[in-house]
Write a structure and sequence with these properties.
The complex is a heterodimer.
Chain A: H1 2-28, H2 36-53, H3 58-79, H4 89-111, E1 127-131, E2 134-137, H5 138-160, H6 162-172, H7 174-179, H8 184-210, H9 216-219, H10 221-231, H11 237-256, H12 264-275
Antiparallel strand pairs in A: 1-2
Chain B: H1 2-19, H2 21-24, E1 30-36, H3 43-60, E2 63-64, E3 67-75, H4 80-92, E4 98-101, H5 105-118, E5 122-124, E6 139-141, H6 146-159, E7 164-170, H7 173-188, E8 192-199, H8 207-215, E9 220-224, H9 230-239, E10 248-252, H10 258-264, E11 272-275, H11 284-296, H12 304-322, H13 329-336, E12 340-343, E13 346-350, E14 357-369, E15 372-384
Parallel strand pairs in B: 1-3, 1-4, 4-5, 5-6, 7-8, 7-9, 9-10, 10-11
Antiparallel strand pairs in B: 2-3, 11-14, 12-13, 13-14, 14-15
Helix pairs in contact in B: 3-12, 4-5, 6-7, 9-10
The chains are: A mainly alpha, B alpha/beta.
Chain lengths: 287, 391
Amino acid sequence: MLTVLFDGVAYGALLFLLAIGLSITLGIMNFVNLAHGAFAMLGGYVAVVMLNKWGIPFLYCLPVAFIMPALVGVALERTLYARLYDANPLDQVLFTIGIVFASMAGASYFMGAQHQIIQVPRFLQGQFHVFTGFDVGVYRLFLIGFCGVITLLLHLALMKTRFGSRLRAAVDNGRIARGLGINVNRLFAISFGVGSGLAGLAGALGIEILDVDPVFPIKFLIYFMIVVAVGGTGTVGGPLAAALILGIFDVAGKYYISQVGAFIIYAVMVAMLIWRPYGLFGRKAAR
Amino acid sequence: MIARIFVRVGVAALALGACVASEALAQQPLKIGFIEPMTGQFASTGKQVAAAVKLYLAEHGDVVAGRKIEVLVRDDANAPETTKRYAQELVANDHVEILAGFGLTPLAFAAAPIATAAKTPMIVMSAGTFVIPQKSPYIIRTAFALPQNTAPIAMWAPKHGIKKVYTMVTDYGPGIDSETTFKNVFKANGGEIVGEVRVPQQNPDYAPFVQRAKDAKPDALFVFCPSGEGAAVMKQFAERGLAKAGIKLIGPGDVTDDDILDSMGDPAIGTITSQHYSADHPSAENKAYVAAFEKANPGMRPNFMSVGGWDGMELVYEVLKKTNGSAEGDKFIAAAKGMSWMSPRGKITVDPKTRDIIQNVYIREVKRVNGHLFNVEFDTIPAVRPDGTTE
């Protein structure tokens, strides 16, 4: 029982890391970015190449798995995404789904279509026994801890720093924020980069549990969307709560009622959206 | 890439054909339409089979019974509607005389009606659901059938201290075939099923399923998953400490697919599976096959899918010799029935009744050999029929 709960929390933590970047772009910039998974996949492949080809230790791969997608994210944001901020959502969807397909084709071309397998360091492998009915997977514990730290950092950055308050101002009312001399474009570029970087980081952390292959951006798109839809956008707490609930229900559903387990999360999503149409802690859209 | 090489082979063959036009007039080149997933989740299957087909052409020459063989490669990316469209185009526009490949069951199903309508021989080189050859009278299978690969392990297990088993299969045709066969044969041999689960095909995380299996405390966990998914299962098997809890991993050999086995690492050691082919199979034919395959495809090891492609080409060549170069549907099938030859996997026969394959199935254990992981065969069940019974 507790093992299942624990696995669920770990899975939720991973989902949160994967989706928080999308919550930023969708919530803060109002941009329907379906290509979010492509950045996660990029992070995953960065880690695979560093680990398997160059033999760099896993923990050192993680910062690079953050930085690379973040840089690519900023570059794409400045060159392509920025042109579509004022476009209607359909154009944004078409554009970003195009990026998804391009990234999938690119990944198959350069990395091959197979699943990528990595070996995490020995101290992160295995499971230890706490008491009967409660076994803790070391890697999953590491994931939960990591996710906790990231959440705290994000929260502090958003609530306690000057950057955070500017960003919140820009979200609430971009025109007035601009009028007050806040460089909204730069804010958006940085946020986009951080969101993409976090996705990449999660992609790298997730290889051990989810695998990474060229269909990754499509395979997990639905999960990102659920987390953002249920959690509401623009906050840290909402997506976190949503991701944890979904993770726990998904794992528990598969464990206890395996035959229909895969559908549980959709049922949960529908129920929560009926209960809270704007997301868990959501407000009505400002714009 | 492979497609491009095939095109080049084709162009070369055409150029050659032009030089000897007077002879070529009598015998047109024979085109084979080869459809496999070459991209996407199941690309490993298509690549393995294509590599074997290419190797066969390289080793045996591209002329048989006076006809030049041209292979037209199409990538259906595991989409049945694409398979169907390509099969149609190949038959109607490119005038192929033989269809071949078919990576997964739904893909073979999609193409079968076209083989029937066009009376074109259709050689199933990969897909493993039992009923496939019944879908068209023009199908011949050189791959394997899931019941065939599953029954031997179900018979072996109860005799070797495995009495209680939890089954976990992927929820589609071959998985259900495998589950049904295992349960029936295992129970008939005195075993007990303590739990079962069908994992959805799109399944990101195996953890809850494997945890549930562990908590049921079986002697062994029986797993079928499509070629390529094995590593993810193996990871959870290791992380959740099933081996430490005394639970063995058994199944048909798809979970320890030679294509990815070596990268699974130590957790795979000790897994016991039954299947028709291991790259480690100790025969002269196989040693030559593996050496040639690895030389032509550096960094790749031939797996159980590849031999389906190799033997599919062997079948085409031998039948064409018998029919003097005719691939006319009824003639081809009649000639193929009952044909038997020595494959890298051992002796195989085309069952005259079902047009399916009769072959040896081996019981193997994963061991480290010269620093690499292999399925090491330790028992042979000769001439297993597609339904898992023996003669």
